[in-house]
Structures are given as C-alpha cells and as structure tokens.
Amino acid sequence: YTEAWDADKKSIHVMPDTPDILLAKANAANVSHKLYVQAWEDAKKKGYDMRADAIPIKTARASRDIASDYKYKETHEKEKGHYIGCPSAKDDPKLAQAARAMALQNDRLYKKAYNDSKTQIHIPVDALSVQAAKECQTLVSDIDYRQYLHQWTCLPDQNDVIHARQAYDLQSDNVYKSDLEWLRGIGWLTEGSVDVVKAKKAQELLNDRLYRTRPEQLKFTSITDSPDVVLAKTNAMQLSDVSF
C-alpha cells in the first residue's frame, strides 16, 4: 500500500532557484554569526598600520600630557628660583599680586576700616530713626508693659475701674464658689440621687434572672396523640434493637 508512496518520496527533486529555497538561504545568511563577523575577521587578517604621527596618537599624547600632574607643574617647577631683576619682593609683580590677594582675603585687614570708623559716627538725639528705636524699645520693654495691681495708674472711682472690678469679681473662683460654702460639712445620702437611680436601672436591664424565664417555671403539658409525637414513637420503635 505504501510502496508507491515511498518510491515517489525518493524521486521528488526541488529546484535550487525556487522562492522558498532562496528565502531560506537569505534567512540563513542573515542569522549566521560567521557571516556577521566575516568582514571583521578579514580586516584583522590584513593587519593595521598606525604611524607615530597619526592624529589619534597625537590626541592621546596631548590628553595624557594635560592630565599628567607632572607636566601640569613642570613649568612652575622650572621657574622656581629664577626671579631675576627685582631688588625686593615688593617690586616683583607676581609677589605683589599675591600679597595684595592675601591682604584682600585677610578678615582683620578687611574689617579694619570698618572698625576704625565705628567710633567716629555721630547721630543726633532727635533723629527719626533714634526716636523710632526708643518707642520700639518702650513697646517691647517688660518694665513698661507690666502694671502691677498696687500701682494704680487711674482713679479708683472711675467707671471703667468699677466695671473692671465687677468683672474680676464675677470671674473670681472664690466669689463664684462662695454660695457653696454653707454646704460644707453637711451630710448627704446618695439614696435617690440621679446616679444611684441610673445604676439601679442599668442593673435591672443587665440582670439575667429578670430577663430570662426558666423552662421549669412555664406551665406546659405535651399532647401524647399529636402527629409529631406519634411519628417520633414510630421511628423509635423501628430503630429499636430490642424490638428488632
């Protein structure tokens, strides 16, 4: 049955220029790692020629010289001890510039003119800023702000003083509680007070004995010929091992 099919399978030949074959070859070439690095491998086999005066070599050397601390300080080291032609350090422009920069950076010299001019300032006593400062000092002063009770600054019979005394008496705790002084020492029973009555009512609400009625206190008589009782008796007789 399969002899003809097996013989036919061996005789099938696909042309090498069909679209599927060409597409498969193109895909294989695209995913091939060997073909991907073929140009790089060929370039490595040819070698390279890097001359000493090439631009990358010069750039690398210049960058190295700039980054080198030795090359950075080489000119300064060579100029040490070669200051010739100046009779003193003040005549040398570089030293004079360094001394000037040091003097500008010195805090004592920077504030010397200010400290000398501080004691030479004369302000008139009636200047506007001085008067404002005095009034501000008076406002923030604790001595002028506080007025003790025994130091009266107004007449005691003025209407505002009388009104203030009445307000103080109303706000005074002693005057507020003076009507309760007669209650001190008087005995009092808590029976019948609001809190006691409220506690009793809460106890009655939470009392389990008053809330629940026990089953034995209920008057109940079961009917012996009711359907559920008769059914229960019948089931008991059917499940009884003795009767069985």
From TrEMBL:
GO terms for cellular component: Z disc. Keywords: Actin-binding, Repeat. SMART domains: NEBU. Pfam families: Nebulin. One of its GO terms (biological process) is cardiac muscle thin filament assembly. This is NEBU protein. It comes from the Eukaryota. The keyword ATP-binding does not apply. One of its GO terms (molecular function) is actin filament binding.
